[in-house]
């Protein structure tokens, strides 16, 4: 008997925000079909004899699927990569008419299992895009950032085509606290390309300068936008990179001292040492925990700006990963029911664009203020340090 599936609105999407375990998916148009690329970081979830299940819904509130099938896992569809695994398969595009939400997961599990399900919002642009970004060895990139100087490529279906690469320079501010007064509706920003060049699909390329880029093969669908950051992004490897995310925890006077210091690493260490009441063990743990979250936010939420600067990155860093995530059409809700700073639900509204197809903005509310300051105070007084380190 076929497994009866609940509406996606009842699923818990928390697993989407575990960068070490989340399954990822990309898609490319190939004539009358769509090719899916699904990466499972833990290959053990693909059990022998159990196929991959694909299910499509009309939206996140749909009561029942529009379409579903299974994909046998064999030499043609499954490829191992260390402890991870890739599954590739083709689906007739016509079979997905009306499908806006597509999920792939091993049939031995439920699709809301945070360790296994790969979710994809199947937009019109994705249905028509006949290329994917790949890394230096030809694997699907599965991210919207490419470091300055990092080799990557564009893998097109069909004959090789020229690529148009455009660079835009734009500055974007970090997220404001969740209680901030909503700004008046602003006009959409219009970005002008400052540089443009043509390269050949199939060859490896490098982005020479930081900024926003679009890459578009001729006659291959909509452009794809990527952010080109400097350094070892998403990791933070130099002292000046450690200063900026501390704006979420510091006063204006502290930020000025940090930003103007000739010895930024010393000032950062001093901040965490004060937070831990001059205990080196807890200070070290606080620093590691905070910047691990910054790096994870960069992995999860980078779009037209680094992930730590986005609204979801803001909450992820200061409040931690959400306890529960629910999705509905054009909306996402993060719940923190057991946090020490109070119970709250934060609502994000979808605001997709070429550079940020999976971007969400927080609905800011004044009632979040006390909860926010309580969360910040936990960091500033060392209460987030692991208890095992408390006496050191």
How would you describe this structure to a colleague?
The longest helix has 22 residues, at 280-301. The chain has seven helices and 18 strands. The radius of gyration is 22 Å and the shape is globular. It has 392 residues and is an alpha+beta fold. The model is unreliable at 388-392 (pLDDT under 50). Helix 4 (264-275) crosses helix 5 (280-301). Strands 1-2-6-5 form a four-stranded antiparallel β-sheet. A four-stranded antiparallel β-sheet has the order 4-3-7-8, with no helix packed on it. The protein has a four-stranded antiparallel β-sheet with strand order 12-11-13-14, with no helix packed on it.
Number of strands: 18
Mean pLDDT: 90
N- and C-termini, Cα separation: 58 Å
SS element count, helices: 7
**Topology as H/E string?**
EEEEEEEEHEEEEEEHHHHHEEEEH
How helix-rich are the residues, as a percent range? 10-25%
Task: Please state how the strands of the largest beta sheet are arranged side by side.
Answer: 1-2-6-5
Could you tell me the strand content as a percent range? 25-35%
Major pleated sheet: 4 strands, antiparallel
Tertiary shape: globular
Alpha-beta classification: alpha+beta
Segments where pLDDT lies below 50 for 5+ residues?
388-392
Radius of gyration: 22 Å
Quick summary:
By secondary structure, the chain is an alpha+beta fold.
Write the topology of this structure.
Blueprint lengths: L23 E7 L2 E8 L11 E6 L9 E5 L6 E4 L2 E9 L8 E6 L11 E4 L2 H5 L2 E4 L18 E4 L5 E7 L26 E6 L10 E7 L6 E5 L10 H5 L8 H9 L3 H12 L4 H22 L9 H9 L4 E5 L2 E6 L7 E7 L9 E3 L6 H12 L12
Helix pairs in contact: 4-5, 5-6
